[in-house]
Predict the 3D structure of the following.
Amino acid sequence: MLEYLPPLNDHNLPYPDTIHPIVVHFVIAMVLFAMACDVLGYFTRNVQLYEVSWWNLFFATVSIFIAIIFGQIEAGLAEPYPAAASTLNLHTLLGWSLSGMIAAITAWRYVLRSRDPKELPIPFLGVGIVLVGVVCVQVYLGDLLVWVYGLHTVPVVEAVKQGIL
Amino acid sequence: MNLDLIDQIRDQLGANGLPYPLPIHPNLVHLTLGLFIAAIAFDIVGVLFPLEKPVFKFLAIPATRSSFFDVGWYNILAAAIITFFTVAAGFYEILLATPPANVTSAWGLQAMETLLWHGVGGVVLLLLIVTMTVWRGFQRFLWRKDQAQQVQWSYLLVGLGIFALMFAHGTLGAQLAAEFGVHVTADRLLRIGENPNLLLK
């Protein structure tokens, strides 16, 4: 199947640099900031922040599916060596799960906002805090793949090609 | 940084060259870039609101113009605050960087040039983000307080220019990791002849 792709570079990619870590900016930042706005909005009674939170969540939902598309492409080309494989599997599993969670939470928020955009029930804040926790775990796993295992970095790709890894 | 100087704290550093297992700067970068880009993007959505009205109606998503400008304001404010920490963490990690001297990046730069440009660029971007936030504040609270369109076109244009700068700057940062292996544990192990497969199990 690889012959359908443009030639791969020294990062083992058909384009210059990894794209997935760029797209995830818009999932990580928007989810964390949305929840920060909800908590701030709840305690300061500033309902403007609820709207800010909703639109950030909306943006995160669109972004996570794009992140997954690039994540799958780059995971498929990552050639994970044995020590890295289980982390990549877990990151993939949690990534797909997060798409479901974020979409469902955004849908719930849509319903809450349609009923009364000035009120936010406590259970939503609770679920939001859990979501922040899951996002942090997912960021940790992605960090391991880049910063510990060095997937798609030139030295690791070279070592895999040479059969060292 | 000079290897002899880094040796002074060698017993505090891990295999990635840092006193903690994962670099902090790249994680704060998610927040800086995500918040700034979303801020400008939502201001653009706010300015073009008359065109989008039928789309939101079709999707049955209630939308008011002013809330897009609220997102534009609060997101850039958060970006400005967080970016001080992003740059601070970045400089700490630059000081502890020991990239190889014999590698040239895809952009034809060596490690020192890349580190310096990425460091200077970071300070310039911090300055730009803070200036944009102040500019945005003036538009929101003084100059355009009573106008339906809260931001000037020039603000959005400068914002798009900063996107281009961020792209170049971010690519330099990506090259520091993925080409020079700065603070990447596996790359550093390979460089000293160790096998990451055995050590990172």
About this structure: Chain B touches chain A through 49 residues (CB under 8 Å). Residues 104 and 110 of chain B are 5 Å apart (CA to CA). The mean pLDDT of chain B is 94.
